[in-house]
Design a protein that fits this description.
By secondary structure, this protein is mainly α. Helices cover about 90% and strands about 0% of the residues.
């Protein structure tokens, strides 16, 4: 704190009256008391800050834990949705593969039928060709 008597005497030495000097020193002293922090004030503020920091730290830990839980839940939901979608795609692919196999079997069957018809027609053409050749041979013999 300030030495009130010394400052009062200094002010009187420069022309202040005793009453003016005491009033000025009192005002300065009160101002310093109102606006100057003591060690006790600082300790009290430090304790309050530590308490607030601990509370904030605990709140942050709680919020982080809640966020983790929410995030884990969301990840699990996404996994489940993806598994379901993958299963649906697999089922669709199996169905499409089966349809393609059926189509291939149908095409093979149609090709066999076409092959049989072509064989019959070729056979018919061969018989007709042989008949024509035979007829031409007979005609040539007759013409000679």
């Amino acid at each position: 704190m300030i030495n009130s008597l010394k400052y009062t005497q200094n002010l009187e030495a420069v022309g202040f009256t005793r009453s003016q000097a005491e009033t000025a020193v009192t005002m300065v002293s009160e101002t310093m008391q109102n606006f100057t922090a003591t060690k006790a004030d600082l300790k009290e503020m430090e304790f309050a800050l530590r308490t607030d920091m601990q509370a904030t730290h605990a709140e942050l830990r709680q919020e982080i834990q809640e966020f983790r839980s929410e995030l884990k839940q969301e990840i699990q939901e996404v996994r489940s949705e993806l598994k379901q979608e993958i299963q649906e795609v697999r089922s669709e692919l199996k169905q499409e593969i089966q349809e393609v196999r059926t189509d291939i079997q149908d095409v093979r069957h149609e090709m066999k039928q076409l092959e049989s018809r072509m064989t019959l027609r070729l056979g018919g053409l061969m018989v007709t060709g042989i008949t024509l050749l035979g007829t031409l041979g007979v005609i040539q013999l007759l013409v000679r």
